[in-house]
Amino acid sequence: MPRVAVPVTQITRAGVAAPTETNGDATNNHSVANNGRMVLLVRNSGSTVARTVTLRLPGLTDGQAITPRTVSIAQATSRYIGPFPTGDYGDSLLVDVDNAELKLLAFGI
Prior knowledge:
The chain is mainly beta.
């Protein structure tokens, strides 16, 4: 099943206007173009419980899938996550969310 692409906004010395957030899609999940200098901003728009974002690592070790990195986002807060070295995360970062209350932004640095 194809993942929902999250656009990457390049940060310049002049700055950038805040881009539109991508709503979390817990069914299809997301992919983000990764050049090793990208940071995710994840916002939990819910006001009652913490939500979880999972970053999938490609490849296998001894025939077993590599344990994904899971980050908890407290209710009504935002968190920056990254950067993501391409040697570990690949050219396409796979991002899974547990609920649509999570909003995603990707920035190239």
